[in-house]
Design a protein that fits this description.
The complex is a heterodimer of chains A (631) and B (278). Chain A is of the alpha/beta class. In chain A, strands 4, 5, 6, 7, 8 and 9 form a 6-stranded mixed sheet that branches. Chain A is 56% helix and 8% strand. Chain A has 4 domains: 59-222, MetI-like fold (Orthogonal Bundle); 225-275, no CATH class; 304-404 and 533-582, Periplasmic binding protein-like II (D-Maltodextrin-Binding Protein, domain 2); 407-532 and 588-630, Periplasmic binding protein-like II (D-Maltodextrin-Binding Protein, domain 2), CATH 3.40.190.10. Chain A has helices at 7-30, 47-54, 56-88, 92-107, 110-123, 130-154, 160-166, 171-200, 203-208, 216-221, 230-255, 262-290, 318-326, 338-346, 358-366, 419-425, 445-455, 465-481, 490-496, 507-516, 545-556, 558-568, 575-582, 610-630; strands at residues 304-310, 329-335, 353-354, 400-413, 439-442, 485-487, 502-506, 520-523, 531-537. In chain A, helix 1 (7-30) packs across helix 11, helix 7 (160-166) packs antiparallel against helix 8 (171-200) and helix 19 runs parallel beside helix 20 (507-516). The model of chain B has no long low-confidence stretch (mean pLDDT 84). Chain B has a single domain (48-271), classed as MetI-like fold. Chain B starts with a helix and ends in a 5-residue tail after the last helix. Classes of the chains: A alpha/beta (631), B mainly alpha (278). At the A-B interface, helix 1, helix 3, helix 4, helix 5 and helix 6 of A face helix 1, helix 2, helix 4, helix 5 and helix 6 of B.
């Protein structure tokens, strides 16, 4: 064999590895970024590492991710290999059938597999948490192992096992001593793929987990209100641990005089680093979690509060302080859309506090998933602004206490967009050819249709098919002639960097954008816009109603509400907090996006209507199809 | 022989419970009229009719197939030489290289994809490098190219791993025998190496093609919301629209198409394996 004389292969491999590590390096660099941006480096800082180490959630997620991945890999590799050996000796029809069955999780979109598992666990009333997540991971990992091992077994001489047994080997020995070593490369790559799949999985884990158990994927995907860069720090930590482990594994044999047989290198070099990495991670987690408070005589010691809310939507001090004050433990789960939340709540998952948006509160209420708040236990009602009370989704304020509120408007670059255009055209500026290719739309059917309906002078809660069709045509015209980019939360970073001239944006995000970039402005069209409220509610099946009320009061206290609004950037419903933050010397002084427009007749709150919602959803799919056709 | 066949039984039971049963539930939804309740059970084919009579849906299905095929072809063309090179290296180097390729996949996909967003965005690193060659204003992010790049980046490790597996335990004496009998390297590759690696190639294709066609995060993040594929449509039906029945139906349609494709691939494989089967 000629060695070192394969220039093309070598170059390609080196390039490939560079390609694989480029984003990893990029991510590592940005874990040291001072700012929150994931695209612009503003200075060196270790704050995300501090944040990571302080965050119990993140450490637990890290532990869950790797312990589940390791367990699922070991279990599915053993089970998958045994099954593959068995199948290879089964009748052809069974083998072919099982191959198709095996492909099911591979070829179905994850969401389908996820819903399938969720229904299964609900049907059998299995308590959701770590175990269900592990079961699901094993279930979707085994097929990858079988797929990898099968061809190796088929390339074996079918008489091999017989020969071994003729020579006196027991069947078990024939498998472990003769067959397995031969198929090792297949087992090895099956295990690698299983591990990868388990680490990466979000949607299946999301729908089968419960009790606050979450992996890193769930954490990242539900950081719906802005991705927190400490996730880069965690990922960097993982890379460093694996690299160190690898280094140790490869240096050790040299030190120990290479007594090991070459054949063993394959499996050991895989298992050891993972095992070492998981151990290291668990130690860190234990240290981080170990500092937890001990049992005490606090009023709610030993009790648990289950909170379900959007990710990255709460000030960092609030939960730890609440725990310190009450002695209770807060189990936090996050969602990234109201609809995602609805699926879990409607399927019987129990939480004590949920923070959905207005129209969803109305829906939950109408479908009897909420309970009335006990007004005698609430001491925060007087502190609330009048503007946030008596809203249509909860006209008598019996079910909800506002958490954040705001509007939807247009973020614009003052250096590129003339205010006259905005004032004269309102939302129709998104059809103005002058700004073609320079706009962001927000990937949400509700907000997009709101914009179109308002631009046309209709109510955003219209049920009239003709008006909805007109709005649909408006949106299709926009996506097919204006070359917009339809994004979600990337708009925050992108507008803060001034990458486009115009974008549809929530006022709370605009507040952040404007505090980052002074060229940016926020405009609320005279055609009217959406006034929205995210509020705290207690589900009907909540288990700790008492503590839930306690939490609501706590969050509404001046200090906490101030911290919360300051951290997230969304408008506080507490009058004093809103006034102080926007007033002289406040964090958001002079930022108009922080102060929602009130008492304006054309501004509306979303009203839930099952039929209209479906119509709009389907039309929005069509708008996006039109957008991809226009590309 | 029979004894070993029994080893498959636990898995068959497990698969029936964990794979077939959940899919059965989904299949049931796809034939049910409305809602998710089993009480009001009434059969219908409406959801299937709705899909096949709407040209828009067929266009996205087609587009998803095309992009999945493109991804698979690129992964194969780039992955094969790399896998081949790795398989030819020393055993130690080989293991290192395999790990080098897999480790990035242990970092959360979304985190890596966000890094790509940063790299590809306006004024990002790649655009600046292109700027040196006077190509500074080529739009990178939110294009089909970005989606392709993201898919290749995420799925190519599987292709490399699978091909490498089938190449690395190959009997080297075969190659030497070929050379002794006067075959030149190209002939040796075509007649010996390639056919022996076919099972790995087919596995690789399966592992790239299947996830590529149903992926929805990559198109959403790198293609922008305007890049709408069949995976996005299904996700949308389940989560946002709440039409599980229609979503299930699209999913069933996909599953059937995939099964047919896999059967076709299997035909090729069988032909290639010739008399090897008992």
């Amino acid at each position: 064999m000629k060695k070192g004389k394969r220039p093309i292969g070598k170059t390609l491999t080196i390039l490939m590895i560079a390609f694989f590590y480029l984003p990893i390096l990029y991510m590592m660099v940005f874990s040291f970024n001072e700012g929150k941006s994931l695209t612009v480096f503003t200075g060196f800082s270790l704050r995300w590492y501090e944040h990571m180490l302080e965050s119990r959630d993140m450490m637990e997620a890290l532990y869950t991710t790797f312990s589940i991945a390791l367990l699922a890999t070991v279990i599915s590799t053993v089970a998958g290999t045994i099954a593959a050996i068995g199948l290879s000796k089964s009748r052809k029809i069974i083998r072919d059938l099982m191959k198709q069955v095996n492909n099911l999780p591979l070829m179905n979109p994850d969401i389908v597999t996820a819903i399938g598992f969720m229904l299964l666990f609900i049907t059998f009333k299995v308590d959701k948490g770590y175990m269900t997540m592990l079961l699901a991971h094993v279930a979707f990992c085994i097929p990858y192992v079988i797929l990898s091992v099968m061809p190796k077994i088929r390339s074996l001489d079918p008489n091999l096992a017989d020969a071994a047994m003729d020579l006196g080997a027991k069947p078990f020995q024939a498998i472990t001593k003769v067959i397995v070593p031969q198929i090792m490369p297949g087992v090895f790559s099956g295990a690698l793929i299983a591990f990868t799949m388990s680490v990466d999985d979000f949607i299946i884990s999301y729908f089968v987990t419960g009790n606050g158990v979450k992996n890193l994927s769930i954490m990242v995907y539900t950081m719906s209100k802005r991705v927190n860069p400490s996730i880069n720090a965690v990922s960097t930590l993982v890379v460093v641990i694996i690299m160190l482990a690898l280094l140790v594994i490869n240096v050790m044999p040299v030190l120990m005089e290479k007594q090991r047989k070459k054949a063993e290198v394959g499996k050991k070099s895989l298992l050891l680093p993972i095992a070492a990495a998981v151990c290291a991670v668990s130690v860190i987690v234990l240290v981080a979690v170990g500092t937890k408070k001990e049992e005490s005589d606090l009023p709610y010691a030993g009790q648990t509060l289950y909170v379900y809310m959007p990710g990255e939507y709460i000030g960092e001090e609030i939960v730890p302080l609440f725990e310190a004050q009450t002695g209770a433990i807060v189990v936090m789960e996050n969602f990234d859309s109201n609809e995602q939340m609805y699926i879990k709540v409607a399927n019987g998952e129990s939480y004590d506090i949920v923070i959905p948006s207005d129209y969803m509160i109305q829906r939950l209420r109408e479908e009897n998933y909420l309970q009335k708040l006990d007004q005698s236990k609430l001491n925060c009602v007087d502190a609330l602004l009048d503007a946030v009370k008596n809203q249509p989704y909860d006209a008598t304020n019996e079910y909800s206490v506002p958490y954040f509120w705001g509007t939807v408007g247009i973020v614009y670059d003052k250096t590129k967009v003339s205010i006259e255009d905005l004032e004269s055209q309102g939302f129709n500026i998104f059809l103005n050819q002058k700004y073609r290719g320079d706009i962001y739309l927000y990937d949400s059917e509700r907000d997009s249709f709101m914009m179109a309906l308002k631009a046309l002078g209709y109510s955003m809660n219209t049920e009239d098919q003709g008006e909805l069709d007109a709005a649909f045509d408006w949106l299709v015209e926009c996506v097919s002639t204006m070359k917009p980019e339809i994004v979600t939360d990337e708009i925050i970073d992108n507008m803060a960097q001034g990458r486009k001239a115009l974008g549809l944006c929530y006022s709370g995000d605009a507040t952040y954008i404007m505090s980052e970039n002074e060229n940016m402005g926020f405009y609320m069209p005279e055609q009217g816009t959406n006034l929205w409220f995210d509020s705290m509610v207690i589900p009907a099946n909540a288990e700790n109603v008492e503590l839930a009320h306690e939490f609501i009061n706590f969050v509404c206290g001046y200090d906490m509400a101030y911290d919360n609004s300051g951290y997230v950037g969304y408008t506080s419903p507490i009058q004093a907090v809103m006034e102080d933050l926007s007033g002289e010397g406040g964090d958001y002084e002079g930022i108009n996006a922080y102060l929602p427009r009130t008492d304006y007749d054309l501004d509306e709150v979303f009203v839930y209507n099952a039929e209209t919602r479906k119509v709009i959803s389907n039309l929005w799919s069509k708008v996006k199809i039109a957008a991809s056709n226009a590309k | 022989m029979k004894k070993f066949a029994q080893l498959a039984i636990p898995y068959i039971v497990w698969a029936a419970l964990m794979l077939i049963l959940p899919m059965g539930l989904i299949a049931m939804y796809s034939f049910m009229e409305q809602g998710n309740s089993i009480v009001s059970f009434s059969l219908t084919l409406d959801h299937y009719v709705k899909f096949f009579t709407d040209p828009d849906f067929l266009v996205i299905l087609w587009r998803s197939l095309v992009i999945a095929v493109k991804t698979t072809v690129i992964c194969l063309l780039l992955g094969y030489p790399v896998a081949y090179f790795i398989a030819r290296s020393d055993e130690k180097v080989q293991n290192m290289l395999v790990l080098c390729i897999t480790i990035p996949t242990w970092i959360n996909m979304l985190v890596r994809t966000y890094a790509w967003i940063g790299l590809l965005s306006e004024g990002g690193l790649i655009q600046q490098i292109l700027g040196i060659f006077g190509l500074g204003d080529v739009e990178l992010l939110y294009t089909e190219g970005a989606v392709l790049l993201g898919m290749v980046y995420n799925f190519i490790p599987f292709m490399i791993l699978q091909i490498n597996t089938s190449l690395c335990k190959m009997d080297h004496s075969l190659l030497e025998a070929g050379a002794d009998l006067g075959a030149n390297p190209v002939q040796t590759f075509r007649r010996i190496t390639l056919p022996l690696s076919i099972p790995g190639v087919i596995n690789g294709i399966t592992l790239v093609f299947l996830p590529a066609i149903s992926s929805f995060f990559i198109p959403k993040l790198l293609g922008g919301g305007q890049y709408f594929l069949i995976g996005n449509l299904i996700e949308n039906q389940f989560i946002t629209v709440g039409e599980w029945n229609f979503g299930s139906a699209i999913s069933m349609i996909m599953a059937v198409i995939m099964m047919l494709l896999m059967m076709a691939v299997k035909k090729v494989e069988d032909r290639n394996q010739g008399g090897k089967e008992e």
